[in-house]
Amino acid sequence: MAIEVEPAVSPYLIVDDAAAAIDFYVAAFGAEELGRVPGPEGKLVNAALRINGSVVMLNDDFPEMTGGKSMTPTSLGGTPVSIHLTVTDVETQFQRAVDAGATVVAPLEDVFWGDRYGVIRDPFGHMWSLGQPMREVSPEEIAAAMAAME
């Protein structure tokens, strides 16, 4: 019998301490742990969480599997990727993440595309943006706001 699979795109995070990361994501974002696969020396080979209705996967760093190079944002000097959460109460969600140990990168503000929006960095180096749509903004208004920034 074939397994039916729903197509999806899921971020897969590499962290220094996957068990601690799971605890952080539960505290910061209300994540639901879907499962974990323990590996050697207590490290997690794979774990899955549901955050804001979507699956986020993660595992501990295994440099021996990547040519001896650590692949965490901390070891790489940062990350060019930000994971975005659209939420219904951005003030509460943002503060919850900060209270759980996130660092504010960009404080919450009302932005030109109509969201209340801010960015945090989790304790493992991953960037998360949080936004709440506050008003409808036309493409013309967005273009005018962008032109005014030049």
How much of the polypeptide forms β-strand, as a percent range? 35-45%
- What is the helix content? 25-40%
Tally of DSSP helical segments: 4
* Class of secondary structure makeup: alpha/beta
For the sheet with most strands, the description reads: 4 strands, mixed
What average pLDDT do the residues reach? 95
**Which sequence of SSEs, written as H and E, runs from N to C?**
EHEEEHEHEEEH
- The strand line-up of the biggest sheet is 1-4-3-2
Beginning-to-end CA distance, first to last residue: 58 Å
Which residues sit in consecutive blocks of at least 5 with pLDDT less than 50? Answer: none
Q: Any idea what the radius of gyration is?
A: 18 Å
Count of strand segments: 8
The oligomerization state is: single chain
What would you call the shape?
globular
Task: Describe the 3D structure.
The protein is an alpha/beta fold and 150 residues long. Helix content is 25%, strand content 35%. It has helices at 18-29, 73-76, 90-100, 139-149, and strands at residues 12-15, 32-38, 44-51, 54-60, 82-86, 103-110, 115-121, 127-133. The strands form two sheets. The protein has a four-stranded mixed beta sheet, covered by helices on one side. A four-stranded mixed beta sheet has the order 5-8-7-6, covered by helices on one side. 23% of the residues are buried. The model has no long low-confidence stretch (mean pLDDT 95).
Give a quick summary of the entry.
The chain is an alpha/beta fold and 150 residues long. The chain has helices spanning 18-29, 73-76, 90-100, 139-149; strands at 12-15, 32-38, 44-51, 54-60, 82-86, 103-110, 115-121, 127-133. The model has no long low-confidence stretch (mean pLDDT 95).
